[in-house]
């Protein structure tokens, strides 16, 4: 009887050991299982940019600045016309109805880009367009950097009230400009600005 009890205890102890070992092995196996792959439902959709905003930005980039030109001389409808930045003389002439039959076509450079306030003059045949009349495109009046007031200075591209005052202040403190390069000493004016102004300003 005593031996039977000992034998039974040994069986129970062995069973408990087996159960505990099985639980531990199961725990480690579960821990080592790789994460399941994402299903299509679990993958988050990328956030797309607002297409309408992107389209609006592109339209603004492609939008050209409107400018005004005066077409005179031997054209069908002389007058002032609204054009777009990047247009050429031929486009303005076409808008004015084209050349008349007596037009001296060679008096204008049809491939030249137009600029705001430009005068395009088409001479008649036999007319001395090279000297007695304006050339194909009259040059804009240059701004005298030494005599212009704040209002006149603001006609230069990139010049507002503040920059105009800076130019006037420099002129008062240092006297008239003797070279275009002196403009580099004025706050807010760099080499790029001077390059853009060199054909639009004068010192005398």
TrEMBL record:
Residues 151-170, 181-200 form the Helix-hairpin-helix DNA-binding motif class domain. The keyword Nucleotide-binding does not apply. Signal peptide: none annotated. InterPro entries: Competence_ComEA_HhH, Endo/Exo/Phosphatase_dom_1, Hlx-hairpin-Hlx_DNA-bd_motif, RuvA_2-like, Soluble_ligand-bd. Residues 48-62 have a biased composition (Basic and acidic residues). Pfam families: HHH_3, SLBB. Residues 39-62 are annotated as: Disordered. Keywords: Membrane, Transmembrane, Transmembrane helix. The chain crosses the membrane at residues 12-30. The keyword Membrane applies. Coiled coil: none annotated. This is Competence protein ComEA. It comes from Fictibacillus barbaricus.
């Amino acid at each position: 009887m005593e031996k039977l009890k000992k034998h039974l205890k040994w069986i129970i102890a062995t069973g408990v050991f087996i159960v505990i070992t099985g639980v531990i092995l199961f725990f480690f196996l579960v821990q080592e299982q790789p994460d399941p792959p994402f299903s299509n439902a679990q993958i988050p959709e990328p956030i797309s940019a607002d297409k309408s905003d992107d389209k609006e930005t592109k339209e603004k980039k492609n939008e050209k600045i409107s400018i005004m030109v005066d077409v005179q001389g031997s054209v069908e409808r002389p007058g002032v016309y609204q054009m777009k930045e990047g247009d050429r003389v031929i486009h303005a002439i076409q808008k004015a109805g084209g050349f008349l039959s007596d037009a001296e076509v060679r008096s204008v450079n049809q491939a030249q880009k137009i600029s705001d306030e430009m005068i395009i003059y088409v001479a008649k045949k036999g007319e001395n367009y090279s000297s007695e009349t304006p050339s194909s495109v009259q040059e804009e009046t240059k701004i005298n950097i030494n005599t212009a007031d704040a209002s006149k200075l603001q006609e230069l591209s990139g010049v507002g009230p503040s920059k105009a005052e800076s130019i006037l202040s420099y002129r008062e403190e240092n006297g008239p400009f003797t070279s275009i390069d002196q403009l580099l000493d004025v706050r807010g004016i760099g080499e790029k600005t001077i390059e853009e102004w060199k054909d639009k300003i004068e010192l005398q």
